[in-house]
Design brief:
By secondary structure, this protein is α+β, with helices and mostly antiparallel strands. The protein is built from 14 helices and 17 strands.
Length: 473
């Protein structure tokens, strides 16, 4: 006869599921990338814990039934709390009292013994830790970078700052303020010159004009938009020799996340106080016609642009690793490798990724950089010439072993030459797809070439000695 404590209680399980789903939604709505990551990891940990407890239940009943084991509630609570804490301890501490209350209520009601509650807590913690195998935790500390050799000007009220706002970048600033970015910037920096991009305007021309005006008065260029907009602004800032104020105004804001800024207010404060760092700027040059394109984050070739878009459509709903697996399956099903020469050596590649700085973790879900001034290109490619390369790639991603798979080629270098690109379908800089006819490209770095405003870093950065910037051709 089955114990009363092991009888199925699907209503209770559903209620707990709704409670934790609500907690994840509330956490994500609180604002900021960190809160959303904590919510996703908590929800993913919860799903793994439930799968473990259901497996244990089926084996214990011997009937293949998915009942409710005595430690199911405590396992779910611990999984969510520990998962959230891995991303952001403050959110985990907020969930901890709920976790403790659930465990205590199980004990008081006699529904679980102390050993069963402890087992549930252990299972929940293990489930949360298991998520790190596929989705490593991003440090809360921003990427390292040293102060510029020439201090950035402090601009009280934004005087001398000329900002171009791209309202079409898909602003995702979860601040609770419904005002448009341009209005908010005018309120934060009333002395700044602010121009909104109109549909008929040329973004590059507006940025060059704003950068030229900033250079004439010893000021700075500002931009509000997504990574593609920041890419164009970085080139203008370097050409005119002015600092850049990068206001996060896109959907994902990858560069701003590594820089450690999540709001317009943070950047505005740094501008007024003159707090800035120097970061590397990567470039792709065409040897044939001399054209050059810079990138702040990544350059990609082959199916990688489609993979990123497919992943980003899903990652806010199901998490980065599941979104990567689903996106990779869809993309590989309808593509084929491309033939390209890498540093003079013929290669057949599914995709090639070049990061402006070394990204973490290994594999093809790069999440963050530890430094923005390491002088290196992070090169990752998937070899399409090995037998069953497509299947091996997918299995390696699903098992979390891509970093050790033979289909993955990975290295760090300062320069990379690519030839035979005329047949490549397209490539992308900072997520913006380019289809221009180019036969070859040389990827390189300008070390600490761009000065960017951000709130003052910790004292450890002040101890670092800035290296001399590489001369620009």
């Amino acid at each position: 006869m089955r114990s009363l404590r092991s009888l199925p209680s699907r209503g209770a399980g559903a209620g707990e599921g709704l409670m934790w789903a609500g907690a994840a939604a509330a956490m994500g709505a609180m604002g900021g990338r960190t809160a959303r990551r904590a919510a996703l990891r908590g929800a993913g940990s919860l799903a793994i814990a439930k799968a473990i407890t259901r497996t244990i239940t089926r084996r214990s009943t011997g009937r293949g039934e998915a009942g409710v084991v005595p430690f199911g509630s405590s396992a779910s609570a611990a999984a969510f709390a520990v998962g959230a804490a891995l991303e952001a301890p403050r959110f985990g501490l907020g969930a901890a009292p709920v976790c403790a209350a659930i465990a205590a209520s199980r004990l008081r009601a006699g529904a679980s013994g102390a050993g069963e509650v402890l087992a549930g807590l252990v299972i929940g913690g293990f489930a949360a830790a298991l998520t790190c195998h596929w989705w490593p935790v991003k440090p809360e500390k921003p990427a390292g970078a040293v102060p510029p050799r020439l201090p950035a000007p402090a601009l009280p009220g934004g005087a001398g700052l000329y900002v171009v706002v791209n309202p079409g970048s898909g602003v995702a600033l979860r601040t609770g303020d419904s005002a448009a970015p341009a209005e908010r910037l005018r309120a934060l920096l009333p002395e700044a010159g602010i121009t909104e991009l109109e549909p008929e305007d040329d973004l590059g021309a507006l940025l060059d004009k704003a950068a030229s005006r900033a250079a004439g008065c010893g000021g700075a260029l500002g931009v509000c938009g997504g990574d593609g907009t920041l890419n164009a602004a970085a080139g203008a800032a370097v050409r005119h020799g002015v600092p850049l104020a990068a206001f996060p105004g896109g959907t994902f804001n990858h560069f701003a996340a590594d820089l450690g800024v999540e709001s317009l207010e943070e950047v505005a404060r740094a501008v007024e106080e003159g707090d800035a760092v120097s970061v590397d700027l990567a470039r792709a040059s065409s040897p044939n016609d001399g054209q050059e394109q810079v990138f702040l984050n990544t350059f990609s070739l082959g199916v990688y642009p489609e993979l990123v878009r497919a992943r980003e459509k899903l990652e806010n709903r199901i998490g980065k690793w599941p979104a990567l697996a689903v996106g990779l399956t869809r993309v590989l099903a309808g593509t084929r490798p491309i033939d390209v020469a890498v540093n003079g050596r013929p290669r057949r590649l599914w995709l090639l990724f070049a990061g402006n700085g070394v990204y973490h973790p290994a594999g093809f879900a790069p999440t963050y950089r530890a430094r923005l001034d390491d002088g290196l290109l992070d090169i990752r490619a998937v070899d399409g010439s090995t037998p069953f390369a497509r299947t091996r790639l997918l299995l390696a991603v699903l098992s979390g072993t891509l970093h050790s798979s033979r289909v993955l080629l990975a290295t760090q270098m300062r320069r990379l030459r690519l030839d035979g690109l005329a047949e490549a379908p397209h490539y992308a800089y900072d997520g913006e797809v380019s289809r221009g006819p180019v036969d070859g490209l040389v990827l390189g770095k300008w070390t600490r070439a761009l000065t960017v405003y951000r709130p003052a870093a910790g004292s450890d950065e002040l101890l670092a000695l800035p290296a001399a910037a590489e001369p620009r051709a």
